[in-house]
Amino acid sequence: MTTWKKAGILFLIVVMGLMAAACGNKAETTTKTDGKSDTKADKKILAVTHAQFRPFEYMSAQGKPEGFDIDIINAIGKELGWQVEVQDTGFDGALEQVKNGKAQVAIAAITIDKKRQQSYAFSDPYFDAKQLIMVPKGSQIKTIQDIKGKKVAVQLSTTGALLAEKILGKGSKDIFQFEDLPSAMDELYNKRVDVVIGDNVPMMEQMAKVSKPGFVTLDDPTIPKESYGILMQKGNDEMVKQVNDALKKIKENGTYDEIYKKYFSQK
C-alpha cells in the first residue's frame, strides 16, 4: 500500500471518530420531546404560560413573559441546573403542550384540582389563592349563590369560570368569558354585567391600578380556598420530585421570599 493511501485512510478514521463523538455529545444535551425526565436531557426546559394574569405572568415591554410565576420557575431551574425557556401559549394551549410532550412544565397560576390531577401531575403548592366576587356598591349580591339570574363576567378557563358554571350551568347565556381578568372587570365598570368572579390577587391589583370608586369585593366563606401548582406530564414522577425538591430549597434559602416581596406587599 502506498504512503499516500495510508495517510488517506488514517485521515478518514480520524474524521469518523470526531463525527461519532459529536453525535454522542448531541444526544446527551438534546431535550426530550416526550416530557419524561432525564437529568442530562432536561438541561433545556420549555415552560409554557398564559401571560394575561398580572402579577403572576404578563408580557414585558420587550415582549417577553415575566412575573411572579416566571421568577419562580427560573429559580427552580437555577437550582436544578436547567436552562429554562418560557413561552406564552395561552392557558389551554399550555396544558395541551405539556400533555403532548412539547413542553416539560406549565406555570400559569394553575389551580390544583381533582379533575386536572386525572390528566396531569402537579408539584407541591407554591401559592394559596381565593376567589372574590366583585360588584358595584349597594348590589344585592352578597354571596356566590346570589349570582343566579345575573350577568357574570369571568376569565376564560379559570376557577372563577368553573364556579359560575356550577351555579348557572355550563353554557349559560349569562356567563361572559374573557381572555383576561381586566377585560372581564371592564364589563362591570361599563355596567354591561352585574358581577365579576376572579382570583383575589390579580383582581385587587387591577382595582388598585384602575382606581374607580363605587365597586367592592366580597369574600364568600363558602367558596373554598385553592392552591397553585406547577403542572407536568402525568407519570413523570422523577421530574415532579426534582421540582418539589428545588421548590423546597428556594423556600428554605430565602429565594422564594425575595421573589414574593418583589410582587406582593404582604404574605
From TrEMBL:
Signal peptide as annotated in the record: 1-27
Record's subcellular location: Cell envelope
UniProt keyword annotations, A-Z: Signal
Every Solute-binding protein family 3/N-terminal domain range: 44-267
One Pfam family cited in the UniProt record for this chain: SBP_bac_3
InterPro entries from the UniProt entry: SBP_3_CS, Solute-binding_3/MltF_N
A GO CC term assigned to this protein in UniProt: cell envelope
Presence of keyword Mitochondrion: no
Keyword Signal recorded: yes
CDD domains: PBP2_Arg_Lys_His
Predominant location category: other
Family, per entry: Belongs to the bacterial solute-binding protein 3 family.
UniProt-recorded name of the protein: Putative glutamine ABC transporter, periplasmic glutamine-binding protein GlnH
Organism: Aneurinibacillus aneurinilyticus ATCC 12856
